[in-house]
User: Fold this.
Amino acid sequence: MNDEQTPERYPERATIRDVAAQAGVSIGTASKALNGNGRLKQETRDKVVAAADALGFRPNAMAQSLHRAKSMTVGILSTDSFGRFTFPIVEALEERLAEHGIAIFMCNATDDPAREKQHLDQLLGKRIDGLLVTARRMDMRPPIAVPGKSMPVIYVFSQAEDPDALCLIPDDYGGAVLGVQHLVDIGRQRIAHIAGPTRFEAVTLRQQGYLDTLSKAGLKPVASHTLNGQWSELWGRDAVATLFDGKAEKPDALFCDNDQIARGATDALRELGLSVPNDVAVVGFDNWDVMALAARPPLTSVDMNLRELGRVAGDRLIAMIAGERLKGVERLNCSLVVRQSSDPSQN
Amino acid sequence: MNDEQTPERYPERATIRDVAAQAGVSIGTASKALNGNGRLKQETRDKVVAAADALGFRPNAMAQSLHRAKSMTVGILSTDSFGRFTFPIVEALEERLAEHGIAIFMCNATDDPAREKQHLDQLLGKRIDGLLVTARRMDMRPPIAVPGKSMPVIYVFSQAEDPDALCLIPDDYGGAVLGVQHLVDIGRQRIAHIAGPTRFEAVTLRQQGYLDTLSKAGLKPVASHTLNGQWSELWGRDAVATLFDGKAEKPDALFCDNDQIARGATDALRELGLSVPNDVAVVGFDNWDVMALAARPPLTSVDMNLRELGRVAGDRLIAMIAGERLKGVERLNCSLVVRQSSDPSQN
DNA sequence: TTGAAAGCGCTAACAG
DNA sequence: CTGTTAGCGCTTTCAA
Assistant:
């Protein structure tokens, strides 16, 4: 009742100097109290803390970083723009890093080397503690030119032509094995592979997984076993038209390189009067809910566990920032989500 | 030939002090030379610049910011996680801000108020110059508690219950008018509206646009004119089943609240033996290429111009950082992309 | 035209 | 236990 009007709102910015003054202690003492360092009388500590939040004090992270030579920030640089694949990765990564108090600068270079360089310069100026590079799918990319070799760099969902770099990607080969083995397990004999464009390493890896699984099961690939096309529904429909044109032995299962292809294939089969999964079982890739759940019937699909990929990327980055030296290509497990397109008992 | 081995790689970090020493000038002079400030002899300037890039000098942005009281960073905080709608916005925003040398901290709170607060604290500690808040679609959200009222805050693709805030959202009403007017223009008489869930403000706005456009054209809405359901293909199929059950007068056009609904509707119509667009024209919303282009036929759709939204958000944020005070709700124009589902002459 | 020095906000080592 | 002080790397007066 005797104090002046105490404005509820915080002052613009209180410095630790203000806090110290308010608490009637030295600025060094205030720092210790606020950071839990040094040995201080509990009373003093409380006094300082009280002053701090009376003033709405919030330490200036830039000043702290300047001193500690750790910015507690990392950059994530997308060569291609961000999209469906990058999002879950980034999201999980952000979550993991946030737990450690690390913030993320997001940069997008959209396939433009000039913008990439500009972003990198900016990030280096901000003294990021680490860098994460992503790209559209898993195509090889030239390594980022980080001066000094000192800063941790991780390529996630992308690979660089740099033997010293750490690359994190899904295990496409293993994912294909998972999907095809499932078709073998449910008793299918004539399994075809409707694939994406051959220029993707993922596509050739998946094809290898497909072939190895068949041969291990003692099955022969159907005539033109792998058809390469686009990542689209249209391609899925076209491929089915080719496979079921009546000339060759018809497949009883399709392994598709993504869910769009699988969905197109499923639609085409239905329109041909064939039942999925009774006549033909279908397995997709990506487990993209928008496609996999909307398809009729819903698609069994290989999940690349992108959130897990992001989480692991976060862990690796933290380890590298702490001084560990990691390199090479790390391939993370895929998993299979079974739905009606291969198993009528699923709902 | 007489110099020691000159290591090509940059040293870890050269400070301006090193540059000054190397150039044989004072540290203040070096600063002036590097920033183009003050009056300096061209010779000195050159000497400093040469020294700087010989040493691979890169100014420490944190140190600069500490002095200039501008961090040249902003935060973008997603209440809900990032997704299909937020991405184009963020991408365009990032592009715009990058042109001004402003970097973006990306934070995701996934509907968790505790994480939201934690992120906000972190961002305030980093002394961001502005904050951008996004959410899933355009649902109202409680305002962010930024102490001091000093920092610019923009809600994009979301609205806050805060009359002092600036909110940027697509003009849903106008978008609906655009879509429905197009159907009127091509001569349709019985236009139905297959809508999303009523809890979204966007849905009620679009319904109003639909009704107003019909009435302006002297048309009556069909019997149960607006059907509310989910944002899914399944709902589109179900709605068509209801509308074409033979009891009531059948529509000759459908205005759908998103492309998934429109696609489901189109599929159902085809399976009913009806031709799109000859028997029934279909217009969707979102212009989401994955849906709109894969549908058979490809969908005419209302585009919310999300990239433009991001760009404008960037401009507004820059203006606000420069001191302008902006508030209120700004609704940005949608546009219409015409494809075969309403116009057979499109390819 | 250049140099010296104060200070942005904070921490940590060292005295007291 | 607490205060003093020297920086972290940079910019910007103010003198010279």
